[in-house]
Amino acid sequence: MSESSPRPAYRRVLLKLSGEALMGSQTFGIDRAVAAQIAREVAEIRALGVETAIVIGGGNIFRGVAASAVGMDRAQADYMGMLGTVINALALQDALEQEGVVTRVVTAIEMRAVAEPFIRRRAVRHIEKGRVVIFAAGTGNPYFTTDTAAALRAMEIKAEVILKATKVDGIYSADPVTNPDATKFETLTYLDVLDRRLKVMDATAISLCMDNKLPIVVFNLRTHGNMRRAIMGEPIGTTVRA
C-alpha cells in the first residue's frame, strides 16, 4: 500500500456470515461460486493489511430452532447446527486457500482431525501473523446463536468492529422485501435495536456489543466491493454504535 493510498478505518475486524450466505440461489447447501466470491472479497481486505476473523452460521445445513428440528431436544438440535457451521467453515477455508489466503479453522467443539480447538491466545497469534481465522461451532454451547458467538469472539480477539454481512443493504424499520414502506436507518444505537426489536442480531449479542462498545456495521454481501467499502469506513449499510 503506497503512502498516498487511503488507509483502512479498521485494523482488526470480525466478519459475521450466515450459513444462508453460502447457499446463493440454492435452497440448501453450499454454492461454490458464492464461496469463491466471498473468498475473493476477504482476500482483498487481507491485501490491505486488515487482520481478519470470520464467524459463520450453519442455517444452510441445519438450524436448531427451525421447523426441521421441531420435536427434537433443543440442545441436541443446536449441537447438530454447530456441526453444520464446521462444514461451512471447511468449505470457506478451501475457497480462501484457493485465493492464496492462509486460513485456520478453529472450533469450539474439539475435532482435531479437521480443525484446531479454540484457544484464545493461539487464535490471536494466527491473526497477528496475517492468517484468516474462521471460528466454527458457535460458542460450543446450545441455546446460543452464532451472532452471540460473533460478539464473543470479537471481544476475545479485540476486534474493532463486527461486519455483519446480510442479504439487504442495512437495517430497516420492517422487512424491505415484504414491506415497500420500510425505511432504512443510517445509524442506530444498541438501545434502539433492543427497544424496537429490530432483527439485526439477537438480544444477547447486541447486549454484549453494547457492554463493550463494539460497533456493528450491517451491509449487503451481494454487492461486490461492499466488504472493502465497509473496511475503508465508507458510509454503507447501517452502523450500530453507542
Give me some keywords for this one.
globular; Carbamate kinase; two-stranded antiparallel sheet; 7 helices; about 240 residues; 11 strands
In percent, how helical is the residue content? Answer: 25-40%
Unreliable parts: none
**Shape summary:** globular
Strand and helix order: EHEHEEHEHEEEEHHEHE
Tell me what the CATH architecture is: 3-Layer(aba) Sandwich
Average pLDDT = 95
Full CATH superfamily name: Acetylglutamate kinase-like
- Which value, in Å, is the CA radius of gyration? 17 Å
- The CATH class label is Alpha Beta
Class by alpha and beta content: alpha/beta
Quaternary organisation of the protein chains: single chain
Q: Sheet bearing the most strands, described?
A: 9 strands, mixed
- For the termini, the CA-CA separation is 32 Å
Strand elements, count: 11
Please provide a brief summary of the model.
The protein has seven helices and eleven strands.
Characterize the structure shown.
With 242 residues, this protein is α/β, with parallel strands linked by helices. The protein has one domain (12-241): Acetylglutamate kinase-like (Carbamate kinase). Helices cover 34% and strands 19% of the residues. The chain has seven helices and eleven strands. It has helices at 32-47, 74-98, 120-128, 146-156, 190-195, 203-211, 226-231; strands spanning 12-17, 51-56, 103-107, 116-117, 132-136, 161-166, 171-172, 184-185, 187-189, 216-220, 238-241. α1 crosses α2 (74-98) and α4 (146-156) packs parallel to α6. The longest helix has 25 residues, at 74-98. The mean pLDDT is 95.
